[in-house]
What does this fold into?
Amino acid sequence: MTKRLFILIMMTAFVLSFSTAVLADAGQAGGVSVFVDDNEIDFDRPLANSGGRILVPVRSIFEQIGYHVEWDSANQAVYINEPGIQVAKANAGAEARIDARAGIHTNDIGIFINNERIYLAEQEPINVDGRILIPVRYVTETLGYDVEWVAETQTVYISDAADECIPMEISFIDVGQGDAIFINYGEYEILIDAGVAAAGKTVVDYIRPYVDGPIELIIATHPDADHVGGLTDVIYAFDVDMILHNGETKDTAAFKNFLKAGSTKENCSFLVAEDTVIVIDDKVSLEIITPVKRYADANNNSIVAILTYGDVSIFLSGDMEAQSEKDLMNRFRKVDILKAAHHASRTSSSAVFMSIVDPDYVVISAGLGNTYKHPHTTALQRYFDAGAVVYGTFLDGTIVLVTDGATYSFDAGTPVTMDDAGDKAA
It folds into this structure.
């Protein structure tokens, strides 16, 4: 859960002060309460209001959020350090004089965060009866906290940005016999495949409420119609920043239409995928893994990817089959969720592969009663042997996985059993 530090204050800006003369000109901010993690801080005197700025003692705030605060009177410096970081004292006065000569704004009182000096342009640190007061907003944001001022309630919310989690939704869209995976993470969207051409409108309608701005990334795993067919409608319907494909061509209408749409899309990079890691932010990344060689079987040429959000990982496998699995085995690792390769065909998800990725859940994208008889009995057996819970779009329709990077849950129905194998009577 997000850690919140509640600071109820009358004004937007915060400052810590040190000068008795300044305080003489400042009024008292009566009735101001300060809460850290729902615990009220007991100040020994009313807070000050100087020119519309609330003055708050630095030690009282930062020791409450776990930082060590030390005042070095000899060097006229305040040190605010994370636990475990030892104070490295500097001659703040000498540094200030050097910086002033260089034209850098300086303060008479040195403020150091994790032993690095910061400068406060809008409000000088001041000393009130031996207590240092500085701009709390600037310092808390420098330490990685978010600050929000709510004027209606005269409340400032300071939250640990490192603990804030944006929910991610991964939708395995029901496109019948095909793949379409939509990843929605805040304002960042990724679409991997979109089923056959007839499924294009279904995908467009599904993702439209979530797309804000352009779709950042579209991946066409390989040229088969049940993967690229619906992408044509998507490309024409939205702005797109980047489209990755595997460089393989196919003499079909589905692929030709996709190629035309992607290669002529304005303000869009249409690129052959290479091995890379796309870093979305400090918590989310997408590792792109491409085949080590060109195979005769187009399924083995699929682009695959591992999506990682914090401690949660999802393997997105296209139609990769056993040969490509074997050749790329050293690139794979344990994941939490596996999107079943090739709609749970017997030719994919080998026993060795499953022993390495060792998923807790498997999601199969396949059409109910499809002519290929997916999912195959042998593939399901390998999933169950790995101890995985299996869901399928052919039973549940669109399946949605939601994660905050620490935990995850599925919006899905009854898990797949061996009775659901399409070839069980064969």
The two ends are 50 Å apart (CA to CA).
